[in-house]
Amino acid sequence: MTKNVLRFAPSPTGRLHIGNIRTAVLNWLFARQTGGKFILRLDDTDRERSREEFVTAIREDLHWLGLGWDREERQTARISRYDAAAERLEAVGRLYPCYETEDELERRRKLQRARGLPPIYDRAALALAPDERRRLEREGRRPHWRFRLDNSDAAHGAAPVPTLVDWADLVRGDQAIDVGSLSDPVVRREDGTYLYTFTSVVDDIDMSVTHVVRGEDHVTNTAVQLQIFDALGADRPRFAHHSLLVAADGSALSKRLGALSIESLRAEGLEPQAVVCLAALLGTSDAIEVHSDLAPVIAGFAFDKISRAPGRFDHSELLQLNARLLAKLSFAEVADRLAANGVGGGAAFWEATRANCTVLGDAARWWRVATGPVAPVIEMRDFIEKAAALLPPEPWDGETWRAWTQAVKEATGAKGRALFHPLRLALTGLDAGPELARLLPFIGRERAKARLAGKTA
What we know:
44% of the residues lie in helices and 12% in strands. By secondary structure, it is α/β, with parallel strands linked by helices. A three-stranded parallel β-sheet has the order 1-2-3. Helix 2 (52-65) links the parallel strand 2 and strand 3.
């Protein structure tokens, strides 16, 4: 039985962000669920913008997220394969050279609009005789090459003939695109470099890709690429076009992606599992839950759960998800990282503070609150002085807070917020935080006494 083969194909022209990581996650989930292969393919044929530093960053981001791959490919190592495929298409009349400059093409588009025609390429290059091509090349013109769509055999200037390309999309259902309204796509530039529309198909054929999972902004590309698959005599993969992400208010997310790079989320202290779970479940019919082990997410994946409506990305939701994940993690799962951040207190301190951590780094903040120095906030000085006089002797444990506050209550008559809030302000300098019953033993009697006296300790 043929294994499913999926691929994530980023261009190393910038950092990965939450939008394209969602695509990577969906491909990875289906590959892992079905026992298939997941390929990392670096689409690095853009010589001007591709950078080796971004190649390294892509690998680092995927490793951090736990999205391991079974095979890695780079398009720059496959130029000979693209040359061979181009020669095949040229031999059967599906690839042809064009010599127009961009200015000439723009003038033609304006003329077509004025005549009420769609501004698509008119295939004038097909009418060039061999001696005309040689003349243009002697003048210094280098051709770009176009793939001739199977939408019309009409002569130069004739109106295009509608031709529907259809497929059963795993997310969007039955799709049909009229390629009669499209220009023959450029697949090779004047400098000999190839464009994504063409290289992606050749790669998918050579790598036996069975499913192409990508954003809905590629739907029109798919119609064109299906014709290239057919022209090369290859089997078509299955396609799944997921919706794109928007901001929480429905606005475009693209201008904010710099702040939502995986690098920035990692630097913010977010857990990789929280990022993966949100990317996997956002815009689906499943409730957004967080798991430290991704096995339930893999098992629950299904294309028919993905909505066609845009997924709304809310950074605050990611933070809440991260907090819920931390609240589930045992001390053993975080011990090394806590130690690296200078957090002591062992399992007892983690248990005392984890419910108040949005990111793991918050534990270091609570350790500083416990062990100082902290500038106390003194309200109701008489009350605080009476409370200080009632501090019990050490050793302190989880029962110390209850016993102390009961004594303060009996001595002062204070209860509820009037009892607890002034003590929290004095002991931590904060309005809110972990349960003081669990935090107080780490503050200790000497430090508590100093803070109740208004001293930074």
